[in-house]
Amino acid sequence: MYDTDYYQWTQQQADAMRRRELQLIDWQNLIEEIEGLGKSEKRKLESYLARLLDHLLKLSFWESEKLYNKSHWETEVANFRFEIEKVLKENPSLGNLVEPIWDEIYDKRVKVMSRSFAIPNHPKIPITTALDDDWFPSPNLELQ
User: Fold this and answer.
1) Among residues 3, 66, 91, 133, which one has the fewest Cβ atoms lying within 10 Å of its Cβ?
2) Which residues neighbour 127 within 8 Å (Cβ) at sequence distance 6 or greater?
3) Would you list the DSSP string of 103-127?
4) pTM exceeds 0.70
5) What is the pLDDT of residues 60-94, one digit of tens each?
């Protein structure tokens, strides 16, 4: 059933758990699904952190587009900060992963974004600064 009608499988599994009919539970697939839920939340956090960094880099270095897009990019930064905060509120244990994820993605995102605009060597934006609702980068990423 798991492979042929996922929705029905989920309903049957939930029903079997409610009735405490352990022999009807598809343990192998249920375990994989539960683990997948956790991985999904981590991927969501990784994605929001990557999008946040992308937009901070745009605000710092993409001069030719800034005149037309600055307001939009700032709104996106605020939105990604909000979404990150929400994910962390719902999943407090992910808080321990924020800095390692940031460190892991930073250089990769700089490389990806440098395909669209020039990104000179710059001081790395600390994650605490990036998440600060009141901070937006000044031109050429002068960290204050």
Assistant:
1) 3
2) 98, 99, 102
3) HHHHHHHHHHHTTTS-----PPPPH
4) yes
5) 999 999 999 999 999 999 999 999 999 999 999 99
Radius of gyration, CA atoms only, the chain: 21
Residue 12 included in any domain: no
Contact 144, 138 (CB under 8 A): yes
Q: Are 51 and 80 contacting, i.e. CB atoms less than 8 angstroms apart?
A: yes
Look at the chain and report how many structural domains it folds into: 1
Comparing C-alpha atoms, which of 56, 71, 62, 70 is closest to residue 131? 56
Helix (DSSP H) and strand (DSSP E) numbers for the chain: 5, 0
Q: Which domain holds residue 49?
A: 41-141
